[in-house]
Structure formats: C-alpha cells, structure tokens
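Extended Data, panel c. Modelled sequence:
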Amino acid sequence: MTEIIGTAYCSTPVGFSFKTIDDILKVSQGNNLQAGLTGALVYDNNNYLQWLEGDPLTVRAVVERIFQDDRHTDIKLLTAHKLKGRWFPDWNMTAAVTQGETLRGLKLVPHLSLAAFNPQDWSEADVVSFMSAFSDYLKQRPAPKSELLSENESRRPRRVDPLSHFDRRLRSIAPDALS
C-alpha cells in the first residue's frame, strides 16, 4: 500500500473573486487527477482553507507551488500527518464557500463556527476535526469519525516559513520521502 499523507494550510486571498476560484479549481482538478491527489478547498472572501492528500513527495511538490502562488498571502501550515486512508477519495478538489447559508448552517464540529470563518486561529486539532467532519458530511456517513476537542486546546503560533515547516513535518511522518 502506498503511503498517504494529508496536509492543510490556510491563507488570505489577494483580490478575491469567484472567477479566480473557478480558475483555481479547474486547473487543480485536472492537475490533481494526473498526480493522484485528492482534497478540499473551503473559502470565503477573506480566507482559504485547503486540504491535500496523496503521496508525500507529490503533496510536497504541490504545496511548494501553492505557497509561491501570488493569489494569496499570509500562508500558514496547519497540519501534516499520515493517513490510514483518503478523507476525500472521490474529490480531485472539491470546494465549499462559507458564505452560503448551507455550509454556514452545518454543525460539522460543535465548537467551530463558520459564521466567523477564521482558520488562522484554529489549532491543528481543530483543522483535523473540521476536515474529518467535512469529509464525513460529503460521504454522507451516518456517524462522524471526528471527536470533540478538549476546551483547553492550545492555539498554534504563526510560522514564518510554511514550506520549511511542512518539510519538517514531512520528515517526521514520512522520513524516506525527502531522502
């Protein structure tokens, strides 16, 4: 079985528009299909939250390209870890906008509100819990695999260089990937 990792980052859009999102999604879906990547993008006018999963080296190459893209700024790596299976197996890149009442009304994770969508302030556990619940929602599972977080979950500090942070995480979860 091929090793699979999942990673999430958030960022701030530069010159947000729905046309830009459509362009990003069209290109991402084609590229991800060829590269064997899956994932999800959750966004509003002020924030992107993206989850990518696949082979460690392939994810790393895409993350590097994304982190250099000038259509967003304030990039923050939120998590990177091994997966037992894909969370978004049927989605080369799905997307959800938090401004629609449908997504805002979902109670995916009880302590996270999409009414004030601000993933920069989420802990790693918050992101994992949210993405896991979002995956469950898309798969229409009867019971989510996510668990409630403790109330005293600490917030993660901002990282100056998200790609270096990703490489450190990649070395810890897939030591042979960057050899």
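The helical segments are 18-35, 56-67, 101-105, 124-139, 162-173. This feature is highlighted in the accompanying rendering.
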